[in-house]
Write a structure and sequence with these properties.
Layout: H1 9-18, H2 22-28, H3 41-53, H4 95-98, H5 126-138, E1 147-151, H6 155-173, H7 186-202, E2 212-219, H8 230-233, H9 250-259, H10 262-268, E3 279-287, E4 290-298, E5 309-310, E6 313-314, H11 320-332, E7 336-341, E8 350-363, H12 372-385, E9 389-397, H13 399-406, E10 413-422, H14 428-432, E11 440-445, E12 458-472, E13 475-483, H15 488-493, E14 499-500, H16 503-507, E15 511-522
Parallel strand pairs: 1-2, 8-15
Antiparallel strand pairs: 2-3, 4-8, 4-9, 5-6, 7-8, 10-13, 10-15, 11-12, 11-14, 12-13
Helix pairs in contact: 1-2, 1-6, 5-7, 6-9, 11-12
């Protein structure tokens, strides 16, 4: 039974004459029940035919033919074959069809909707859904729900506006208060129809919060010029932009339609009937990023944290980032990754103790779920692949949890072990004086070695404690607990006076650093695991 009332009849008749499909007629008649949209189009065409042909004292009528006609409804007497389609895209009814006696030989497929350009016709049927699902299944994504997003060509807004102007005139005659925003939106109606079909085919529900997205881009080259007249009426809406292939974006067209006068619109746009429906020009599947966190130890003094490339030339064979990420990329089948960590060490600095926290964002992964045992196995694979690094506490975390790694960065503490050389001969009691210094404040001007990538500034940093270990007349070890962000090498040699005070000035001699190890990064993230 058609979900239309008597007051909808003139609107339905008008839209049929305009060349609209049954589902677009439902939208403009503000039918908000989803079930009618999901019924076969042939049945809807038949029942609409009966509905508009009924007498005014009949509220609704249904089609009782065993095989409803599949042809687009015709609204006038038949003319010559060449003139069977009216200028606005609708079809005329043959006498046989009026009598309900049309045979299959006389029936033709419904014409392409003048309003939605076929979006609510064959492009929301099971054959199309199966084609999209074939693309999804061949991509080998792991998902338990999905988001379905669509991009329609901007000229659909122009055609919908043309239909709205006709409907608005009829609504005015009925003294009804209806705005364009009250209509059922095309995208909403489309998803009402297509979501259950995807559920049937894929076996998983549509969920607006899902991280797996299936996106389809529709195009209709035949009517691409529908929007062009708007540039004369509203030139300010269509400004070229570097990142846009066309000035006729949906937002620009919608803005222009809000500004253009109704008479100007009707004068310049005649709603020519389309010959072909829209086509899906792009189907993409993407999974939301997976975030993997852990801690790493670095045992090599010739391994940078990230790839060391200068002027396009690689300076080191590998990096911490690459040694970890290559295995994650393979396991999760991701397109790319982004590496971040709680600070960084120089290429010649080892990271020992409990390691340095890190996180890797895996972009568009095919796999998104690994069990605890699988994560342990992945961690072991990384550790077996190189003697230069080891990882532990490897785990999947949320995007929000990554923020804990960067929160209060300067308030964290780090512990170091430095091997120091002095130009002047020293004794045990000379370096022991450092042990009593607590909460030593430094003024550190941006080091010369990083000035090319960091702004010039003076940063106040704190050495919380120091513990010396005398070795010989020119060497000693110094264990330091410092504020995060302290430049330890510069604290030792002074950086030509850019760090004050420094070990050289405190001991009254020239000093330099021979080795440096990070012994701990004091943060409780990521959580320790029993592995």
């Amino acid at each position: 039974m058609i979900e239309l009332s008597e007051k909808d009849k003139p609107i339905a008749q008008m839209l049929l004459n305009f060349g609209a499909c049954p589902r677009c007629i439902f939208r403009f008649c503000r039918v908000e029940l989803q079930a009618p949209y999901r019924r076969p189009e042939k049945e809807l065409l038949c029942e609409l035919h009966t509905f508009v042909q009924s007498n005014n004292n009949e509220s609704e009528a249904s089609c009782e033919t065993v095989q409803p006609p599949s042809k687009r409804i015709r609204l006038e007497s038949p003319k010559e074959e060449a003139e069977e389609q009216t200028p606005n895209g609708s079809h005329q009814l043959t006498d046989a069809e009026k009598d309900g006696n049309a045979t299959d030989e006389n029936l033709r497929p419904p014409s392409v909707c003048t309003v939605c350009l076929g979006i609510l016709q064959e492009l929301c049927e099971m054959d199309f859904v199966k084609a999209v699902c074939q693309k999804i299944n061949s991509s080998e994504y792991q998902f338990s729900s999905f988001v379905f997003s669509v991009s329609f060509p901007p000229q659909l807004s122009v055609r919908e506006h043309a239909a709205w102007l006709l409907v608005k005139e009829e609504i005015g005659k009925q003294d009804l208060l209806v705005e364009k925003e009250d209509l059922v939106q095309l995208k909403e109606a489309y998803k009402w129809i297509i979501h259950p079909l995807f559920l049937e085919e894929l076996g998983v529900p549509a969920d607006g919060k899902s991280l797996f997205e299936v996106s389809v881009v529709f195009a209709h080259p035949e009517t691409d010029e529908d929007c062009h007249f708007l540039t004369k009426a509203c030139p300010s809406c269509f400004k070229p932009a570097k990142n846009k292939q066309s000035v006729f974006t949906r937002m620009a067209v919608v803005k222009a339609l809000e500004l253009i006068d109704d008479d100007d619109f009707l004068k310049n746009f005649q709603s020519p009937p389309p010959k072909t429906p829209c086509t899906a020009v792009d189907i993409q599947c993407t999974n939301g990023a997976v975030f993997v966190a852990g801690r790493y130890n670095k045992y090599s003094r010739t391994l940078p944290q990230t790839p060391w490339i200068i002027d396009g030339e690689r300076k080191m064979e590998s990096s911490v980032e690459e040694l970890i990420s290559e295995h994650l990329m393979t396991t999760f089948k991701a397109d790319s990754f982004n590496f971040s960590s709680s600070g960084r060490e120089d290429v010649d600095v080892r990271t020992l103790g409990n390691g340095r926290p890190f996180a890797i964002e895996l972009v568009n992964p095919r796999r998104v779920h690994l069990t605890a045992e699988e994560m342990k196995a992945l961690q072991q694979t990384i550790n077996n692949s190189s003697d230069k690094i080891q990882v532990h506490d490897l785990q999947i975390v949320t995007r929000e949890a990554i923020g804990h790694m960067k929160e209060g960065e300067e308030g964290k503490t780090k512990s170091y072990n430095a091997l120091i050389w002095t130009e002047k001969e020293i004794r045990n009691e000379d370096v022991a004086v450092l042990d009593s210094m607590k909460e030593l404040k430094l003024d550190q001007k941006t080091p010369l070695r990083v000035l090319h990538r960091r702004p010039l500034a003076v940063r106040v940093r704190v050495i919380h404690t120091m513990q010396s270990e005398y070795i010989d007349e020119h060497h000693f070890r110094l264990r330091l607990k410092t504020q995060a962000g302290t430049y330890i090498k510069e604290f030792v040699h002074g950086d030509f006076g850019r760090t004050k005070p420094n070990i050289g000035s405190l001991l009254g001699t020239t000093a330099d650093i021979l080795e440096l190890d990070v012994e701990s990064v004091d943060t409780d993230w990521p959580p320790a695991l029993d592995n």
